[in-house]
Design brief:
Elements lengths: L3 E2 L4 H7 L8 E4 L5 E3 L4 E3 L4 E5 L6 E7 L4 E4 L3 E5 L4
Antiparallel strand pairs: 1-4, 2-3, 2-8, 4-5, 5-6, 6-7
Length: 85
């Protein structure tokens, strides 16, 4: 599976969130690294989207797209900071 930067997740994340999520900053629950989602590592060839911490490779966010719904897991983020438009 090819590893890309988190900006590769923009299209799929944009389907779910009205705000630009790749610019959002989050804190990894595993190692405490704080960075923009766009700086994380994205895996987009899976049945969904997996975003991993660039420092420790912990899973930060998982997004799976179904026929009529989405499943979102953010178990690896302590917090996510979104800028208001």
């Amino acid at each position: 599976m090819e590893e890309l930067d988190g900006n590769a997740a923009a299209g799929m994340l944009g389907e779910v969130f009205a705000l630009e999520l790749t610019a959002a900053r989050g804190r990894c629950d595993g190692c405490g690294n704080v960075a923009a989602v766009g700086e994380a590592r994205a895996y987009v060839e899976a049945p969904g989207l997996v975003i991993r911490c660039r420092s420790c490779k912990s899973v930060l966010l998982v997004l799976v797209r179904g026929e009529d719904r989405y499943w979102l897991g953010v178990q690896g983020l302590t917090w996510l900071e979104l800028a208001r438009p």
